[in-house]
Amino acid sequence: LRRHPPLNREERTLLWILVLWFLSFLASEVVNGAWEQLVRELGIELRFLFFVPLYLLVRALPDARRALVLGCLVGAIGNFSRAVYELAVLGQPVVIGAYDNQIYFGDLNALYAVILLDAAWSRSYGRSVSWAALVGALLSIAAVVMAGSRNGYLAIVLLLSIWGALRLPLRRAMIWAVT
Predict the structure, then answer these.
(1) In whole angstroms, what is the distance from residue 125 CA to residue 66 CA?
(2) pTM of this structure
(3) Helix axes 102-122, 150-167, angle to 10 degrees
(4) Is 104 in a helix, a strand, or coil?
(5) What is the pLDDT of residues 68-97, one digit of tens each?
(6) Which residues, 6+ apart, have CB-to-CB distance to 100 below 8 Å?
(7) Which of 77, 79, 94, 173 lies 20 to 30 Å (CA to CA) from residue 107?
(8) 103-126, pLDDT tens digit by residue?
(9) How many other C-beta atoms lie within 10 A of the C-beta of residue 164?
(10) In terms of Cα–Cα distance, which of 156, 153, 176, 154 is closest to 164?
(11) How far apart are CA 29 and CA 35, in angstroms?
(12) Nearest to 109 by CA among 125, 127, 122, 96
């Protein structure tokens, strides 16, 4: 592990939002007396709390960004393969993925697509990783389409628009947002 610079404002904000989200769920269940629901859904909501130490650990690892990109690439290839398998082999009408929910599957692949597109655009990981990231982004977009989730469609459009506004030069970003 390496020493890393202090958390910036955006990182602190994100981590506090996750902690407060978990605490609001806990407070809501306690106030409403929904103990059965609290016990049943605590594991789901704990992911928001557990993300905080995981983020801090990954941030301290050397070359954490490259590991994130390669992990997203593996996920994109795996999810695209699963989508093809579910549609072509199993004959399912929509792809539901490992979570048995096409919404999660579509949203996750939208996130993979934007992370991989940004890695390909930045070219800071070398030529072969940049090309692989571009292919992974396209596979993730295809997986979003195969999932058939309106939420996934909305997520990919919004994430690509935000990415375009942040990464492309101003004139191109304005054209990108209008089209």
Answers:
(1) 7
(2) 0.71
(3) 20
(4) helix
(5) 889 999 999 999 999 999 999 999 888 888
(6) none
(7) 173
(8) 888 888 998 999 999 999 888 888
(9) 18
(10) 176
(11) 7
(12) 96
